[in-house]
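Obj.: predict assembly geometry.
Materials: sequence records (below).
Method: joint structure prediction, all chains together.
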Amino acid sequence: MASPSDQSVYYIPHNGWYPVWIAFGVFMMLAGFGTWLNDVKAGEAATDWMSFAGLGILAVVLFFWFSKVIEENQQGLANEQLKRSYVWGMGWFIFSEVMFFFAFFGALFYARNFAVPWIGGEGDKAITGVLWPNFTAEWPVMSNPDNTLFPAPHESMAAPGITNWVSYLPFWNTVILLTSSVTVHFAHTAIKDKARGKLIAWLGLTILLGILFLTLQSYEYLHAYHELGLTLHSGIYGSTFFILTGFHGFHVTLGTFILLIQFLRSLKGHFAPKDCFGFEAASWYWHFVDVVWVCLFFFVYVM
Amino acid sequence: MSEVVVAGHDDHHDHGPDKGLARWLFTTNHKDIGTLYLWFSFLMFLIGGVLALVIRAELFQPGLQFVEPGFFNQMTTNHGLIMVFGAIMPGFVGLANWLVPMMVGAPDMALPRMNNLSFWILPFAFTLLISTLFMDAGGPNFGWTFYAPLSTTYAPETVTYFIFGVHMMGASSIMGSINIIATILNMRAPGMTLMKMPLFVWTWLITAYLLLAVMPVLAGAVTMMLFDIHFGTSFFNAAGGGDPVMFQHIFWFFGHPEVYIMILPAFGVVSQIIPTFSRKPLFGYDSMVYATASIAFLSFIVWAHHMFTVGMPLAGQLFFMYATMLIAIPTGVKVFNWVSTMWRGSMSFETPMLFAIAFVILFTIGGFSGLMLAITPADYQYHDTYFVVAHFHYVLVPGALFSIIAAVYYWLPKWCGRMYDESLGKLHFWLSFIGVNVTFFPQHFSGLAGMPRRIPDYALQFADFNMISSIGAFIFGFSQVFFLYIVIKTIRSGKPATDRVWEGAHGLEWTLPSPAPYHSFTHPPKVTDAEAHS
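Observations (raw structure tokens):
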């Protein structure tokens, strides 16, 4: 219905086989993962082919779907108004991601300011204080109400005094991510200046910084598990620590992957100063994971 | 704003629907997807209804008649989950799909492929959820509010599938909301300014923001459950420093906006229907918009009124009590405006109008009982009794559900080009109206007398009210099968409808032929004062 030259037309694809396969792939992946989890918990032989098959379907179909959208854009089918729909879409998707993290930050806030002090006996009406009379409320929680069920960590991840930050890994991770937000901005400027060489260099550097962040984060996790005794099992401190940093790390992984796709597209010369929304969406996502990290650094590590 | 045109080419008519199953699986058309949503919603409504009738059959008499208590718990849990996430929410999304592009003068939804994905996730999500009922461990049995530790430490192993099902439903809702927001903000025809939009569009815009804000929080809540169950964390376990009450806070931070997600679009529907059959413009259009926005804002700061008895600091109880009562003000504005719209109108009482008027009256009853529940000390008495059940069924059944039924009668002639049978429609209305009141009104009394909810057996003094309630439930349930018959009869053999359908109807959708063409506005419509609020 839309001819490539006609920019007054809002392009509506006639149909598409991608979405229903995505739905099926997600279903396979989650049903398989759930079965695997239940089998592991029950101590039975667990199969994982189903979740991997679902993941495979998801990956393949997403590849074709995005290729199609890029192809349509290059044919000139996407007019200004359609691009604005993408802008609204990505913007509000990031808002929903913010709310996802909000739930975990909320849990951290509630546990730290209400739940733990109440178990420790604070407040004159709460009876929670009598459950574990020996429990002392502190944050990070270094001794759990029931230490046999939830063995407490030997050491926490709390930040040392500001003078010792040079030897504090999360500080360097903060520096790395903040730097990567700057480099991805330079890459954007390079697109605007039509400097493809610079774009590739800055974007490549951003991706390397992302990978470096993830490497250090993995090292931190190994350190926590093997030397600090800080695990998912070690009570509310470990729970909030790992769910917040873990989901952030997962989002950095996704963000790095999205940037990698933009890198490959840059090599192919896909972006023009006024036509680079794929890149811009990726960079917004990157800035978003960066902001989440800054909140994490303060609320999880420093405060 | 650039023009919203499908080109002047004459090649658009080879873009009619595909043939066969492919049309429904692969469609990117907002009307096809709207139809899918609405049929899916009706299917879930029937399944959820059957579970409700199992509950009412068991409660017909004291003692255990038909089902085991454990199975009874699965029925209450899945009845709630299926009705909320499977029937009401997809029903409204289906209406949004059909109507929003036509009402704002757009060719389709802003992101058509993602629109298809939003729908097709749902059948898979509910396959995952409903299949648990047939597994050895049994389905979810911890109530639709799935409080920890019932849903974690003591849950059947199928809770894992429930969690992933909720994740999928959330993804569907988020994508659907993004699409609706992008459509409303980006696809309006020239001249359709925000304050000229039909109220149904306004209420859905605000609902979409509510969904975007709280569905991710629900995803976070079930994710923490997943971690507690499978990965050894202790978010909701006090032995590790967590707190089961924290689950309730997070759940209701989602849950309270959720109830407005189920009622704001209903306000929109009723605000379209009442002016048509009163043959007057909506009274207080601007205040309707502001009231909707106020209710949406307030919905974020009242969640703990669901958990007054759980143990909370006094200051918290007072705050949540007063904030909750504040909602009565914008809601009162709305009810006042609906009544004022009818005041001295040249009214007629076709089926959609009957359902809309019943909505105004019965929803208000549900609102009043809500106000009673908001009073903290009184809630200590009402909490977890059938009074609460009566309250939320009054806002959800003759509230949300009646508005969906009203919308179907109102717009079905536009959708399929045929009129429903007016006397059958009226019969359906009276059966539903009587059925719903016979079912739920007595529950106020049994609740005030102390009958707890979610139990398969009860003390003898509640027997009469429960028997009445069960009779009403079966009347209501079978009336909806009659509704199915009416809809099918209309689609197959109804009398042809005119384009305007109702003489008092205004809005861009009524300027289109009946049935509406596959692509709504191939040329951007001119938004005249007669078709827009001005």
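Conclusions so far: DSSP finds 16 helices and two strands in chain B.
To do: check interface contacts against the pulldown list.
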